[in-house]
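User: Quick sanity check before I run a bigger batch. Here is a single chain. Can you write out its predicted 3D structure?
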Amino acid sequence: MKSERLARSGVISLFGSAFAAVAALVLTAIVGNTLGASGTGLFFQAMGIFTILTQVLRLGTNSGIVRFISEQRAFERAGAEWRIIVYAAAPVAVVSAAASVAVWFLADALSAWLATPADADGLAALLRAMAPFVVLGALIGVLQISARMLRGVTAFTLLQSVLLPASRLLTVLFAVSIAAVAAWGAFEAWLWPLPVWVLITAAVIAPPLIRDIRRRAESTAETRPSFRAFWRFNAPRSVSSGLETALEWADVLIIAAVASPAAAGVYAVATRATRAGGVVDKAMRVAVSPTISALLARDRFEDSTLLHTKVVRAMILMNWPFYLLLISMGSAVLAIFGDEFIIGWGPMMLLAAAMMFQTACGMLQSILLQGGKSTWQMYNKSVALALSIGGNLALVPLWGIWGAAVTWVVVVVVDNLIAAVQVHRGMHVNLQPMKLIPAMIAPVVVFGGGGALFGWWGGTSFGMLIVGGVTLCAVYGITLWFFRHRLHIETLWKKVPVIGRYA
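Assistant: Done. Predicted structure follows.
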């Protein structure tokens, strides 16, 4: 993989993440308008369980593959990359195969625990439907991140963020269009594309793997990582990866279990709409993680600080407008998914504010991982998950989805503050919040103030959302161009420091 400019990698990854987010929103709109709040809740409950399972069963290998291959390239070594991928894929295949069998036989017991008595049978059917796909869901993550390292950002983005989401959207749309399917049929249609893309991704990474195997004589026991070293790094990451995914879905699952699928459906739609703003964060992580890993491997802390500040500034400029629109005109957004979901606007405002804070904190998690501090992150996510579960169990019975939203805010703030202290003091990557303030002003003035004015003047109908969004985007674009030097926008297109042949 040749060295890539941050801007080029970031734009490609951003396009893919944006496409995936739009596809997810369209899928949510189809499910919401077809299945209603209750069916939507059951659909996303099953999706949450499947996502938690497959993310946990990837055993944190995504970060390990990026870190160890980047380290090999930082020191211009060859002939060991295929070993790293085998180290990752083999245990994942074995463990996930055992887990898929367990899901099939324990479906009734799990559904009795995770759903209300009235919905247990429906969830059990969904668990049995997902069981054969668990292995594929775990392995495709390993193969896709291998494509990122072996084939570059473009191949990874197409496979993970464009083709797989698009095929899932089409299969679900086909399923709901030919018959009045229930949550079971829609969820099974969402699973169907997995086998196809596992095979295609394996074919994509095969040629560079074969070339690396042919160069295996160039690697020695001293230069190539061992299986033990790979999993010593990955062991805590396996736990923290599972904790991260459980943290993402715990609130939806708890609402479904202690409240109702309808409440879980409303909250799931609100969270899906909010998480769509994370496309920039994800794109930047994909583009920058290998470079951050290489810089930290050489103890180039000043370059890491410079790169991080530059990336966070871009994340704020691109992310905050979306969250501010959700806050000011969120009812129009939620109406897209069905009238039943508009009641989620208030909680969604809290979610959006929390995500603005997380965006301003930057790539803290990536720095911890690529700096070899996966154990720290594991402890952080343990604290965050405990707060999430405890907060949701305490507040959801009292306040419903408002309780889940308040818990979300607390978890996001605590998780990021802990990571900020660790990165700043423990890893010598200085956080520079004062340099981010100019980037915050523009979206707050244009989309915060402007969105409020549009909402006050014209209401929050879908038509006003379109008119307001287009108008504010035009004003924002002009503002960024006018203040491009003051906001250091032109520096985003300069080449990132690279190490050796690779970034």
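Residues 495-503 have pLDDT under 50 and may be disordered.

User: Great, the batch can go ahead then.
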